[in-house]
Amino acid sequence: MTAVVPVAAAGFRPRVGWGQFEAAAVAALYDDYAALLDAGEYREWLELFVAEATYMVVSRENVERGLPLATIRCDSRAMLTDRVDAIIGTQFFDRRITRHMITAVRPVSLDAVTLGTTANFVCVETLVDEHSMIHSAGSYDDCIVAVEGILRFSSKIAIYDAPLVPTSLIVPL
Amino acid sequence: MTAVVPVAAAGFRPRVGWGQFEAAAVAALYDDYAALLDAGEYREWLELFVAEATYMVVSRENVERGLPLATIRCDSRAMLTDRVDAIIGTQFFDRRITRHMITAVRPVSLDAVTLGTTANFVCVETLVDEHSMIHSAGSYDDCIVAVEGILRFSSKIAIYDAPLVPTSLIVPL
Amino acid sequence: MTAVVPVAAAGFRPRVGWGQFEAAAVAALYDDYAALLDAGEYREWLELFVAEATYMVVSRENVERGLPLATIRCDSRAMLTDRVDAIIGTQFFDRRITRHMITAVRPVSLDAVTLGTTANFVCVETLVDEHSMIHSAGSYDDCIVAVEGILRFSSKIAIYDAPLVPTSLIVPL
Amino acid sequence: MQFSTAEVDEPIAVRRRWPDQGVSRVPYWVYTDPDLFAREQRVIFRGPSWNYVALSAEIPEPGDFVRTSVGDVPVIVTRDRHGVVHVVVNRCAHRGVVLCQAPSGNATTFTCPYHQWQYASGGRLLGLPFKKGVGGHGGMPDDFDNADHGLQRLAVTERHGVLFASFDDEMPALPDYLGPTNLGWFDRVFDGRELSVLGYQRQTVPANWKLMFENIKDPYHASLLHVFLVTFGLFRADNPSKTQMDSSGRHSVLVSQRSTQREVVGTDDIKRVQHDLELHDPRLLDPVREFPGAATVVMQTIWPNLIVQQQSNTLAMRQLVTRSVGEFELHWTFFGYADDDEEMTLRRLRQANLMGPSGLVSIDDSEVMRLAQRGAMIADDGIALLEMGGHDLEDTEHMVTEVAIRAFYDHYRSVMGL
Amino acid sequence: MQFSTAEVDEPIAVRRRWPDQGVSRVPYWVYTDPDLFAREQRVIFRGPSWNYVALSAEIPEPGDFVRTSVGDVPVIVTRDRHGVVHVVVNRCAHRGVVLCQAPSGNATTFTCPYHQWQYASGGRLLGLPFKKGVGGHGGMPDDFDNADHGLQRLAVTERHGVLFASFDDEMPALPDYLGPTNLGWFDRVFDGRELSVLGYQRQTVPANWKLMFENIKDPYHASLLHVFLVTFGLFRADNPSKTQMDSSGRHSVLVSQRSTQREVVGTDDIKRVQHDLELHDPRLLDPVREFPGAATVVMQTIWPNLIVQQQSNTLAMRQLVTRSVGEFELHWTFFGYADDDEEMTLRRLRQANLMGPSGLVSIDDSEVMRLAQRGAMIADDGIALLEMGGHDLEDTEHMVTEVAIRAFYDHYRSVMGL
Amino acid sequence: MQFSTAEVDEPIAVRRRWPDQGVSRVPYWVYTDPDLFAREQRVIFRGPSWNYVALSAEIPEPGDFVRTSVGDVPVIVTRDRHGVVHVVVNRCAHRGVVLCQAPSGNATTFTCPYHQWQYASGGRLLGLPFKKGVGGHGGMPDDFDNADHGLQRLAVTERHGVLFASFDDEMPALPDYLGPTNLGWFDRVFDGRELSVLGYQRQTVPANWKLMFENIKDPYHASLLHVFLVTFGLFRADNPSKTQMDSSGRHSVLVSQRSTQREVVGTDDIKRVQHDLELHDPRLLDPVREFPGAATVVMQTIWPNLIVQQQSNTLAMRQLVTRSVGEFELHWTFFGYADDDEEMTLRRLRQANLMGPSGLVSIDDSEVMRLAQRGAMIADDGIALLEMGGHDLEDTEHMVTEVAIRAFYDHYRSVMGL
Ligand code: FES
Ligand code: FES
Ligand code: FES
Ligand SMILES: [Fe+3]
Ligand SMILES: [Fe+3]
Ligand SMILES: [Fe+3]
């Protein structure tokens, strides 16, 4: 059964080798991830996860205090699909245009199946009639697997640094 | 004759292969692009374009509404040179120091001659006596060709997300 | 004896080849650099420098005016260690969480021993009870050497663009 | 220093005049006038009110503390070595430094960084360096008495694990403050069982704090704005429901009951409903009944800074922290019961997807509050309309009313002298 | 609600006293006093003035709409199913939510997200959910009349495809408002031909809105600040030119004529000119004559929020949107004529490089406005000098004058009671 | 225009009343009231005071200039072709544009970008384009006299390479302004030797400017807050030391002497000291004695905007630039002497690690100022306590006192009429 507490390592995780994974392919996965979210292509973005994938957005505060609550908690790609359905179909909000700047993608764990990676993100958001501004900054703590040679996320945790979210967190991090 | 409407694809463009282009060389082109603009070396920056290159800076609003107006429209490198001459020689403005953060460079079209790429940018600007702040964020929609083995832009469209430009857009995006 | 004036080139430095250095290894060095600082692992971060390394943080203003003063000046890794000791042990300040976004890493000088590189950085900072905001932006002017096959900084100069630092510059750039 | 809770001089009621129609109208300047906001801080948040500050479960052990705010005053909620809870203003009595920065921790003394003045959990000044000088030089005057220079203390009360504080020492007991009806609903969730804190969500909302209360006291919007709720049958305007206030009108509770089916009945509220939408992972919403009675949604607002949320199995304290006339912080403390099994905990954690800055319900609310504030800021001579359900202030047995908002402003006007 | 256009209470003229020298002086507090700014909103933008809102060509079809602002009031410009244009305040009559967020679109009804109140293109309240309650419960009082609760409407007038709106229902017709001279210049560009919108450019300028009008009404600066213009012969102080106001001084037009050559004549204005500079791609500037008469530059300012720009073949409406006493938005709507061929369209698009946030002319102006605001903010007892061309308010046949600015402030003082 | 240095109308003393205990108390509204801040600009920074503006060594050659500020007024410090130093307000006399943007440079004339008005180093208006019109048209009125329209000039004085300016032309000579004691300490560092500028560090601090003076005038905090200083023996509460004011109390100097050893004596100040800490690179701190006398730390505050810092061998001018009631800029100009050898220069550059935005001493100060401002902003009825060392205003021979802060506020009250 799903772990109650996000398995996020709050601290630093040392680099390992890329093993059977190609660094360029991992970089491409993150690039597509950002490009899809920033183009608002949320359904296609879902395809970057395996069916069993878990996806969480959680504040650094909860991670560091060992509290299980996430801000977005999807225990399966199906649950993540439900959220995408909601963003597209049921929620009311003014349009947000995002730019996910993802840097420092690093391999931090490796086994026969899974590559663990961390990365930094800064999400810049543009609202109707306003200037572009920083929405959030933080780090990723992810797991990547190869499905018929194509890399997919089997788990993703986005940990945002500032406990206070400016208004809302609508577009996934 | 030049197209009236910028040929920018507002939406997402799926990834293709790098073909005869080296990913590292493309990355280097973008890195030099940022480094030259951020050092204020606008004349050298011109060298990153082929003579026939078109360069446009356009608001996402105009692109999405199918309107032909660009904020900067150069239908040739010569016209871009005229703008650089103006920035250096005729315009009055306080110095802007920029940092172009370019990420998620992705190949999106490929033929025998040209590689189409998209990327994200966030431009951070520093004005006299002020803190560094975000000037703009958006995406690139570019075409790259090889000239005697060296990569150059044959077309570049910078699409900025926020319709409202803070004061002015002086340093090219 | 140590140079009085930081040997920072204020202007643009053209690209050279990577020579005996692997581009990917250099990228990894910068990625680890950001990841360690942003995780607050300052002691481990020290390991990215050789013992003789000099580390300086200096305002673009002083560099351009040819003034020798740095904001942080460490003429050896030992002196940098003293600063880390102070950050950890003696200084009073509210916690800062940083995200160092490092892009456009470019080789700009090369000899048998040393690779010179430049890069852009934007440092996003999160303070207690506040939103994430830009702390500083600027460029690096670095020297990298290989120690038993592992890349390390033999010299690093972080040049920040805005003369005015917002409150304090505590976490190294 | 002590905050005065005295009336302030500027004669606001003169400068600002409430519309003649009374509380079925709200002038937009209540959301935009900085002087009014300053007055609210004095007469409401630092006045005779019980402000929610924390759950006892957040500071279970002696020495545990959490930082929070009462209105815009930062305070520390501490449990001393004897287990007694104190609430003190987080400002040094010497020269005003905000002394505690940790969001939470364990400490039985608090030391100011500037000159190392040291305070006990209850705010008492334990000591200060060089009080007697150094080598016979300097030091504090002989008449200096530590007892005069502690951190300002607030009155504290606790009920079933929920902690409230007040700048007023003459406050009535919490049950009297809440009144019988609202006390009953309060005790429904806080029935004396030990609570367990699941975590926090925090957000800033660019709107006046009163718009948050309006939103929660407004059952009228729920079936119209929250398509997700209606789509999945969690809320409908024709569900059995009621609105109950206390005698002053400052507190209220909205109670509703999930419908057992999703067929379309001929109500207006379903225009935007996605009839074809089904959950791909039903675990996102698999509510189980856990409280006596049929109610499945109970939203209680407790003057002046708390919303107690029970939506299906997601339980949260929503604490309002005012930042300025045009912005407030919303701090969500999600909790369960110490005796929840892991399945129930997981259920609560998954249903938390409905609430907070990414909540599939609350995203809608944050957005309309933002847009209502922008509307209020357009000009200061506009007026909002509160006539749904009539003009009265009585409890109702339905959801088609703005009565709880009217009651709120009825109390607000009397407190603010408007 | 309706905005009152009544005079406001605070006696600004008392607190603030205009310099004795009259309109050849401007006190810096007109750019920095927030109370004055609030008053400007009431008596100017929400007062008896025709505010530019849109081009008819932006909303050609029934149901088309665009969002814009009048002063700092957000409005929607709509074309109803019958083709009639309306301008309504973008604020829900229920509880003030800014209801339309799309910059433009096509809709014949507008629904507020909060409680789904639905309005017609003209602002009429078409309906609201649960008006009669649900299952006999709740609903609006019997005396509730939709007719009393529409979106606020503005008066609208159109001339040759240009739309203006006013909060004042007693406005004179546009021709009378503009006066014969300025009407003539207006009709020169808007001659009845169908317009085609080329696109938008928008920017925020950290300066008081009046500095924008000063800049455009100031021919004195053009040949001194705009090196690009002079370098390429588009403007010279010794070009044939004139400045013409209406009788009130609130509107004005600057007319000039490109010189046929670039030789240096002995004027002062060429210090910074780059004599050696040649265009690498002459297509950037290949103006063709398209209007009767010799004028090549016509800059018309229409009180209180519009600049009509004709510089060579680049045509644009520059709409001022005030944000605060120290910041305004400039919205550029570039247009041509429906019968332009592609070559002319391309010409206009290329010449657009001169204007907007990246304009080779307007970059200079934005920068000096920013620096003038910083100068004004230094302290509030400074005074600007407007003596170029003398002290009078008469039309001139040359460019060496600040008369149009003096005339502007002459009108401003009378309207503001300063 | 000229700034009036006249008293302002609003009767602050009426609206704001100082606590009855006098200067052993400071009400928090002195840090938060924007009206008070505006008044400070007029009566203090633009009033009868000598404001530090630059070191002569920054502008050694004819034509050299630097930009800086006096209070929140931007000024240019220039050296004319004859070598005479002038300080002029950086605002064009025409229409207020801030005309010089370069932080420093060499120019004997300054031209405004807007209309090319040209000024001499001393502010005299040299000329303006089209003064006589063009082709007989326009131009300035006959009575226009350049002499009436220069840049505003400030009075200037220099002592031993340090430049001060004043908006008041009646200022006493600097020695009289400083008084004998403080003049002596000033001349200790500025002994007539030629200075050499090492560079700048600049930071914004989110605190009221007076908190910076309190901090520097407060020896009490040094041994308690600055663990780094104490750990490495640079400062101890039991070091020989003294505090000396001038007769008005506005200036003061703190003098202290490094201890020769690090053993723990029984003082309170070492709680947080890291006894085991040793420098890995002792070059970070290898002070050498360079001034007569035993003093190793001399911190002098000169009303209203300067701190002269001598900590071991790091010398700096700390200039305060006010930005708003809640924020100031701190500009550090590090310097040495022209006859320093490279080893001494390197020593100063290394010891600079102690100061500035990354200073191992000053980081602590910036942080407590930030937190003190947050404390002051909590509410405006709090009061700070200044009783360390008693209630008097006399010089002391020790560090356990807040007397210099009391003296500062004694002067402040008289100047501000509080
Ligand atoms: S301010 Fe807290 S101890 Fe001095
Ligand atoms: S606020 Fe618009 S419908 Fe209620
Ligand atoms: S404003 Fe300076 S010359 Fe006109
Ligand atoms: Fe809701
Ligand atoms: Fe202009
Ligand atoms: Fe200090």
Helical element count of chain A? 4
- Mean pLDDT across every amino acid position of chain D: 93
Tally the beta strands of chain D: 19
Oligomer: heterohexamer
**Mind summarizing the main beta sheet of chain D?**
7 strands, antiparallel
The largest sheet of chain A is:
6 strands, mixed
Alpha-carbon distance between the termini of chain A? 25 Å
Order of helices and strands of chain A: HHEHEHEEEEE
> How many beta-strand segments of chain A?
7
What gross morphology of chain D would you assign? Answer: globular
* Share in β-strands of chain D: 25-35%
Strand order of the largest sheet of chain A: 2-1-6-5-4-3
Round the Cα radius of gyration of chain D to an integer and report it: 23 Å
| Shape, per Cα inertia axes of chain A | globular
Radius of gyration of chain A: 16 Å
Proportion of residues in helical segments of chain D: 10-25%
Walkthrough of the structure:
The complex is a heterohexamer, with three copies of chain A (173 residues) and three copies of chain D (418 residues). Chain A is an alpha+beta fold. Helix content of chain A is 23%, strand content 42%. Chain A contains four helices and seven strands; from the N terminus they run H-H-E-H-E-H-E-E-E-E-E. In chain A, strands 2-1-6-5-4-3 form a six-stranded mixed beta sheet. The two termini of chain A are 25 Å apart. Chain D has 418 residues and is an alpha+beta fold. Chain D is built from ten helices and 19 strands. In chain D, strand 7 (109-111) and strand 8 (118-120) form a beta hairpin. In chain D, 58% of the residues are buried. The chains are: A alpha+beta (173), D alpha+beta (418). Chains in contact: A-B, A-C, A-D, A-E, B-C, B-E, B-F, C-D, C-F, D-E, D-F, E-F. Chain A binds chain D through residues 1-2, 4, 57, 59, 61-62, 65, 67-76, 78-79, 81-83, 85-86, 89-94, 163-170, and chain D through 103-104, 197-206, 225, 227-228, 231, 272, 274, 277, 279-281, 283-284, 329, 334, 342, 345-346, 349-350, 352-353, 356-358, 360, 363-364, 366-368, 370-371. Strand 7 (164-166) of chain A pairs parallel with strand 12 of chain D, so a sheet runs across the interface. The structure holds FE2/S2 (inorganic) cluster (3 copies) and fe (iii) ion (3 copies). One FE2/S2 (inorganic) cluster is lined by residues 92, 94-95, 97, 112, 114-115, 117 of chain D. Residues 215, 221-222, 225-226, 365 of chain D line the site of one fe (iii) ion (FE).
